[in-house]
């Protein structure tokens, strides 16, 4: 039986193989060509920076830099109407507000601040850096910030100041806003003579506003002047001087008390400081920068920067709530009066040499450099204790959390 089945199956297969085949004809639809569409992304062109020296201290394009670098150019600063660095924090990834102008960068408290690649913050203390004379803000994220010393694991922020331009430009700006805000600025830059080998920049800025916290206000003034000289075929010498004044009334500010759920215990405008409390800061900054290329393979730049800032503040430090009238609610904030002086005098310098060569089809860039930084800091303080608690009570009265009455305490009382 088995051989018969095999022959039958083979015969059926041969019969199927001899059946005629018919081709199927289909009609191909016509191809419709659509009009081209150009998509233009303004944010990708206007806010895009091709390089930033903060990463490698060279002019290496950002696309070739392995570190994480973010650049906030002047166009972004102007479009956001940002006038101080705290206005830009929302535009920087990996950064969060800490206190005053301080931040945490990638989870670490960020202390290292650079100006034109040099260490030293003229706003050191409790003042807030202003952006009037800043061309761009460069943020180097991660442990690569150790390139600038200080061992900052979170990274480093570098402020690049505005320098004299080759093209003449003038700008006058007026601003008005809520909280009685007003600002005025003037800038002028361009060549000082026809051949363009000497250029200048001058600028002045002033603003003022009332804060949303009771008793607070702020005023800032900035004067900035610089001149650039072309020396030889490749050399450029830039000299710059900046004067900064900042007056903050009703400061230093602490937070408003909250409950365990994070709800404010009183009005968000509440302030533990008196109307006579203040924080005044004055800073002076001088910069000299020289760059030249002794040959096609070498580039050299050197910079020297000096700054001095003085900060004086008188304020009432909140020391904790107590139940003064024994009604079961802690409504009385005890306070300590503090009078503090901070004087900083610093000098910073660096020298960098860049050598470029190639071996076959491979290009090499070699960086050599040295940095020097010295800071002399002086701190003086006077303190008057609270009159409400403690073994040694002082003359300073507290203030009610719900119905504050100001004017009962001051440094000269």
From TrEMBL:
Q: What GO CC annotations are associated with the protein?
A: cell outer membrane
Q: Where is the TonB-dependent receptor plug domain?
A: 65-156
Q: Superkingdom of this entry's organism?
A: Bacteria
Q: Does the keyword Transport apply?
A: yes
Q: What is its main location?
A: membrane
Query: Which keywords does this chain's UniProt record carry?
Result: Cell outer membrane, Ion transport, Iron, Iron transport, Membrane, Receptor, Signal, Transmembrane, Transmembrane beta strand, Transport
Which InterPro entries has this protein been placed in?
A: Beta-barrel_TonB_sf (IPR036942), Plug_dom (IPR012910), Plug_dom_sf (IPR037066), TonB-dep_rcpt-like (IPR039426)
Q: How does it sit in the membrane?
A: Multi-pass membrane protein
Signal peptide (residue range) = 1-23
> What GO molecular function annotation could you give as one example from this UniProt entry?
siderophore uptake transmembrane transporter activity
* Subcellular location, record wording: Cell outer membrane
Instruction: Please state which protein family the record places this protein in.
Output: Belongs to the TonB-dependent receptor family.
Q: Which PANTHER family match?
A: FERRICHROME IRON RECEPTOR-RELATED, FERRICHROME OUTER MEMBRANE TRANSPORTER_PHAGE RECEPTOR
The protein in question is named TonB-dependent outer membrane receptor (N-terminal)
Q: What does the organism's lineage look like at the top?
A: Bacteria, Pseudomonadati, Pseudomonadota, Gammaproteobacteria, Lysobacterales
């Amino acid at each position: 039986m088995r051989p018969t089945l095999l022959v039958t199956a083979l015969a059926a297969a041969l019969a199927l193989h001899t059946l005629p085949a018919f081709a199927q004809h289909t009609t191909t639809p016509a191809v419709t060509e659509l009009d081209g569409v150009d998509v233009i992304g303004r944010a990708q062109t206007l806010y895009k920076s091709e390089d930033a020296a903060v990463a490698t201290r060279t002019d290496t394009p950002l696309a070739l830099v392995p570190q994480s670098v973010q650049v906030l150019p002047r166009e972004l600063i102007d479009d956001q109407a940002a006038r101080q660095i705290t206005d830009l924090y929302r535009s920087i990834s990996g950064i969060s507000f800490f206190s005053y102008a301080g931040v945490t960068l990638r989870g670490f408290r960020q202390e290292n601040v650079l100006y034109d690649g040099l260490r030293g913050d003229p706003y050191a203390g409790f003042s807030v850096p202003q952006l009037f004379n800043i061309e761009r803000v460069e943020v180097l994220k991660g442990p690569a910030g150790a390139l600038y010393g200080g061992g900052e694991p979170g990274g480093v922020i570098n402020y690049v100041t505005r320098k004299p331009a080759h093209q003449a430009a003038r700008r006058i700006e007026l601003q008005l806003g809520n909280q009685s805000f007003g600002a005025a600025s003037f800038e002028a830059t361009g060549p000082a003579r026809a051949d363009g080998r000497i250029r200048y920049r001058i600028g002045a800025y002033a603003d003022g506003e009332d804060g949303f916290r009771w008793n607070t206000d702020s005023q800032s003034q900035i004067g900035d002047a610089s001149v650039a000289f072309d020396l030889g075929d490749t050399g450029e010498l830039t000299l710059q001087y900046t004067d900064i004044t900042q007056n903050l009334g009703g400061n230093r500010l602490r937070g408003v008390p909250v409950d365990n759920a994070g709800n404010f215990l009183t009005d968000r405008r509440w302030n533990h400081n008196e109307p006579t409390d203040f924080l005044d800061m004055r800073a002076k900054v001088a910069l000299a920068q020289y760059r030249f290329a002794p040959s096609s393979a070498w580039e050299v730049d050197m910079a020297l920067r000096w700054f001095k800032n003085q900060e004086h503040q008188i304020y009432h430090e909140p020391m904790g709530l107590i139940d003064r009238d024994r009604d079961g609610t802690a409504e009385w904030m005890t306070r300590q009066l503090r009078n503090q002086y901070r004087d900083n005098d610093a000098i910073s310098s660096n020298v960098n040499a860049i050598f470029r060569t190639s071996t076959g089809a491979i290009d090499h860039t070699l960086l050599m450099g040295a940095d020097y930084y010295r800071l002399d800091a002086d701190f003086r303080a006077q303190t008057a204790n609270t009159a409400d608690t403690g073994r040694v009570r002082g003359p300073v009265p507290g203030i009610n959390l719900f119905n504050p009455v100001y004017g009962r305490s001051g440094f000269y009382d």
